[in-house]
Amino acid sequence: MHGMRWVVAAGLLFLLALALQLGLLVFAAYVLIGVLGVSWLLARSWTQHLYAERRLVDQSAEINDALDVAVVIRNTGPLPIPWVVAEDYLPPAALRQRPPRLRVEGKRLRVMLVWGRSSTRLRYTLVMLMRGFYQVGPVILEGGDLFGLYRRFRVETHPHFLLVYPRLVPLLGYDLSSRRPVGEIRLTHRLFEDPTRIAGVREYQQGDPLNRVHWKATARTGVLHCKIYEPSTIAGGTILLDFRREAYPTRGEPYRSELGITLAAALANTLYEMGQQFGLVTNARDAADRLRAEGWQVHAGAFSDAAHNRRAALAQAETPEAADRLQPVVVPTRRGPEQFELLRETLARLELNDGLTLAELVGEAGSSLPGDATVLAILAEAPPETALALGNLRRRGYAVTVFLLILDEQAGTLDWGRLLAEGLDVRHVPSEEAISGVCQAMALR
């Protein structure tokens, strides 16, 4: 844009000099037009030979981890490039948020001289302060002529996507070797049996496994007898996480939403350690699904001819922020280490959404809630329709435990009352420090 203005000005100056027959001014106009032409050719040649490569070894991290990032800027042309502005893109929201989700140590933006057929490096460190799914890159390169009349922007390297896992809060004072399930109620059908609780003995029947033989009763009576176990209570739990943006006012953010994710990870970890099943149903948005559907806007190696400044070039590299997903995110209720890793990765990618309310989520994903697992609902608020939806689950035979993420207990009195009126078990979680006690109380009740 600035270069075009200079071309127009030089053309007008040349026409004016010809009209007035000013020889010296005509010569000056010739020189100016020549300088502009050479500057344009050099700027175009320099930027065509610029390339970048990012080196980021780890694609996942824990909170408070520090990852080193190296960006190699390479000039494949024979001529030196007098100035290059290189910046590695990071999501602005993660840096501007208070407190920030990421901290940058070092320089991810640098002005440098790149000699012909050589390279230079841009180094910085990323400190992960909160869980999330972050886009690192692409690299925005800006170059131009010596006078700054022509500026061209180049987008280099495909972005890396970095997964930061939620924190796992230990459950202090709880015996993880216990086989007692979380959120227990009696089942009308003997779906499971608890081998730690013997209800009685009976005579051996064909097909009974040897590990059920009651040897003391057999020795006493002289006839094979087997143990009868009590029917198991409900085993495991399905986490029902309300992550609708309206439920989390700006005043309490990002503390309350991150508290909900941490609580969900702690519950899943408890059930995993106990060898029980666990799953997740939420109205949140999965950042990975958003990127698969929408992608990022600029392809690597493309010149941003429409960008006239750095802000416009960076905006072209930014991922769209649409947030109206209407389908729930579901991790089916299962057990095992692979299940835990899947659920933890899903929790790391979740973002606040403007889609389904929790009542609509229960109606949409009701079939994903198995009857042999407790529904562990994590809420930031409980309007009447939410309390009614959870009460209906209880009346349909589900065991439901509700965790209220209310920082001020008095402010949540109305929400608490609605849930108690539906006959639900309600737990108050005001802080991360309270998670251990809440989980312990629920597991041992």
Give a verbal description of the structure.
There is one protein chain. The protein has 445 residues and is α/β, with parallel strands linked by helices. The protein has twelve helices and 21 strands. It has helices at residues 2-20, 23-48, 92-96, 215-221, 255-273, 287-294, 310-317, 337-349, 358-365, 384-395, 413-421, 435-444; strands spanning 50-55, 60-61, 66-75, 81-88, 102-106, 109-114, 118-128, 132-136, 139-144, 151-156, 160-164, 193-203, 225-231, 237-241, 278-282, 285-286, 329-334, 350-351, 374-379, 400-404, 425-428. The strands form six sheets. Strands 17-15-14-19-20-21 form a six-stranded mixed sheet, sandwiched between helices. It has a four-stranded antiparallel sheet with strand order 1-3-7-5. α5 (255-273) packs antiparallel against α8 (337-349) and α9 packs parallel to α10.
**Unreliable runs:** 173-191, 297-308, 441-445
From the N-terminal CA to the C-terminal CA, the straight-line distance is 71 Å
The global form is elongated
> Helical stretch count?
12
Structural class: alpha/beta
- Bin the helical content: 25-40%
Major β-sheet annotation: 6 strands, mixed
- Strand coverage percent: 25-35%
Give the secondary structure arrangement, pairings included.
Blueprint: H1 2-20, H2 23-48, E1 50-55, E2 60-61, E3 66-75, E4 81-88, H3 92-96, E5 102-106, E6 109-114, E7 118-128, E8 132-136, E9 139-144, E10 151-156, E11 160-164, E12 193-203, H4 215-221, E13 225-231, E14 237-241, H5 255-273, E15 278-282, E16 285-286, H6 287-294, H7 310-317, E17 329-334, H8 337-349, E18 350-351, H9 358-365, E19 374-379, H10 384-395, E20 400-404, H11 413-421, E21 425-428, H12 435-444
